[in-house]
Design goal:
Distance between the termini: 6 Å
CATH architecture of the largest domain: 3-Layer(aba) Sandwich
Mean pLDDT: 86
Strand order of the largest sheet: 3-2-1-4-7-14-11-8-9-10
Shape: elongated
CATH superfamily of the largest domain: HUPs
CATH topology of the largest domain: Rossmann fold
Oligomer: single chain
CATH class of the largest domain: Alpha Beta
Structural class: alpha/beta
Number of strands: 14
Number of helices: 9
Low-confidence stretches: none
Strand content: 15-25%
Helix content: 25-40%
Order of helices and strands: EHEHEHEEEHEEHEHHEHEEEHE
Length: 285
């Protein structure tokens, strides 16, 4: 079972910092995790004291918090801190487009998503007040960690009995293309379509059989078309407050990840808070 034993949060002196700390603190409590607070940038005694006081927003006792102060390249320093402190889940903020309500993944967060060896949660609108997720969308394929992504969704859904977990899969377009090219009748084509949809739903049901999920409400949706685009639009229709996808495999030549082009669409305009699941040895006990 996936478990985050150490939660990290990257903060600055922005107005959103108290909300970021509150969100990270709630996740630390949920997973009974130690919290690692990271600040990369110039500081003074005054700003350090200011941030130290804001630790109260985490709701955690001081002995469960580690403070880290670094200078230098933000991406590299945050990655180094995650490795040094064995962080399993890093919480970061999204950037808001000027004069728009949409959010996107900034250059630093995008580099972290590609290189981090831990899961990364990007928050589009961190909330200082306590909240639970009401609609969680999980993309249950295109990753070796799709099963872990679904596990994480079940854990988060247990916080609220009214939460829905919407699990998405994709129709294998090759099967549909072959059916169309073989001059099947419309009835035969629709039959192939229904069969492919049943197969995808059965794959989700097999995964769910391996995950304890009493009282969690599920909706399985089979999508077609460009995965990132359709996934984003589906999340918008469901008014999702969290979208979970498994991390793609790392490219060994570059020690980096390359996200499928369709998933890059999600980074351009985030439809919801985005969690990229990358379990570590510590989190899969």
């Amino acid at each position: 079972m996936i478990h985050f034993r150490k939660v990290g949060v990257a903060v600055s002196f922005a107005p959103s910092t108290p909300a970021m700390l509150a969100e990270a603190g709630r996740l630390s409590k949920l997973f009974h995790a130690h919290l690692v607070v990271m600040h990369v940038g110039a500081t003074t005694d005054t700003t350090r004291q200011q941030l130290q006081k804001q630790m109260a927003f985490t709701g955690l006792p001081p002995e469960l918090i580690t403070m880290c102060w670094e200078t230098g390249d933000p991406t590299q320093r945050i990655l180094e801190l995650c490795k040094r402190h064995e962080v399993d889940l890093l919480v970061a903020g999204a950037l808001k487009k000027e004069n728009l309500i949409t959010h996107y993944v900034g250059s630093v967060a995008r580099k972290i998503l590609r290189q981090a060896k831990c899961s990364v949660l990007v928050l589009v609108a961190p909330n200082q007040e306590h909240r639970t997720f009401k609609n969680v969308v999980v993309h249950a394929e295109d990753s070796p960690y799709a099963f872990e992504a679904l596990q994480t969704a079940c854990i988060l859904a247990h916080q609220d009995p009214n939460c829905w977990v919407h699990v998405t899969r994709e129709i294998k377009m090759l099967g549909l293309t072959m059916a169309a090219n073989e001059q099947h009748t419309e009835e035969e084509y629709n039959g192939t379509l229904q069969q492919l949809m049943r197969e995808e739903m059965e794959e989700v049901e097999k995964m769910l059989q391996r995950i304890p999920h009493p009282s969690v409400r599920f909706n399985i949706k089979v999508l077609s078309g460009k995965s990132g685009y359709e996934l984003g639009k589906f999340a918008e229709r469901k008014q999702a407050d969290l979208l979970i996808v498994g991390a793609p495999p790392r490219r060994m030549a570059f020690l980096d990840r390359v996200f499928p082009h369709d998933l890059e669409y999600l980074f351009a305009e985030l439809p919801a808070n985005l969690l990229i699941v990358q379990p570590t040895h510590a989190s899969t006990a």
